[in-house]
Design brief:
alpha+beta
């Protein structure tokens, strides 16, 4: 196997994993982190955050409605 055949799928997989791991909370939003369906964290400050994909799920909603 050539080196390109190994590096291309590996780098593509890492890019997808990085894309699924990062989420952004805007100033007017609230975010709740769920781990396997249970609420874990709910006090995220605005900005860029990292989570574990597949196990964790983040729901954001507009805080101006509350």
């Amino acid at each position: 196997m050539s080196r390109t055949q190994i590096l291309l799928p590996a780098s593509f997989s890492l890019l997808i994993l990085a894309y699924l791991s990062v989420f952004y909370v805007q100033e007017h939003e609230k975010a709740i982190l769920f781990r396997l369906g249970e609420r874990v964290v709910s006090d995220f400050k605005p900005g860029l955050h990292v989570m574990t994909p597949i196990i964790n799920n983040v729901s954001t909603f507009d805080a101006r409605v509350l």
